[in-house]
Amino acid sequence: QRILRLAEMCRRLETEEEKVLPFYASSLAESEQQNARRVLEKTPSEPLAQAMQDYVGLERFWQRFNKAKLEEVALEQARAALANKNRDLRGLLQQYLTGAAINQKVP
C-alpha cells in the first residue's frame, strides 16, 4: 500500500514532459542498442538473472529515483558553491566597510 501511495504521489508530481515522454533517451549508439536488445531477449541462465526478470517492471521507478537523487546531489553542490561565494562576498564587504571606517577616522 505504501509503494502504491508513493507511486500515486510521484505521478501527481510529474512534469508535463515526463507525462508525455515517460521514457528517457538512451545514450547508446544504434548498434549498442541492438546488441542490448538481443541480450535482453535471451532467456537468462543464471539464477540471479532469472530473479531480476521478475523486477523488470521496477525499471522505470529506479530511473526516476536515480534522476531525483542526481538532481538532489546537484542542488546540494550548487547550494554549497553559493554558500562559499556568499561567505567570500561577506568577507570582502567586511573588508570594505572596515577600510571605509578607517578612512573616516583619519583627518
**Spatial shape:** elongated
Report the structural category.
mainly alpha
Q: What about the largest sheet?
A: none
Low-confidence stretches: none
Radius of gyration: 26 Å
Sketch the topology as an H/E string, one letter per element: HHHHH
Please state the average pLDDT score: 81
Give the end-to-end Cα distance, rounded to a whole number of Å: 76 Å
Number of strands: 0
Number of domains: 1
Q: Into which percent range does the helicity of residues fall?
A: over 70%
How many helical elements? 5
Strand content: under 5%
Descriptive account of the structure:
This protein is mostly helical. It has five helices and no strands. It is elongated and about 90 Å long.
Secondary structure elements and pairings:
Layout: H1 2-13, H2 16-20, H3 30-41, H4 47-53, H5 59-105
Short description:
The protein is mainly alpha-helical. Helices cover 78% and strands 0% of the residues. It has one domain (1-104).
Task: Describe the structure using short key phrases.
107 residues; mainly alpha; 78% helix; elongated; cell projection; DRC1/DRC2; flagellum; coiled coil; cilium
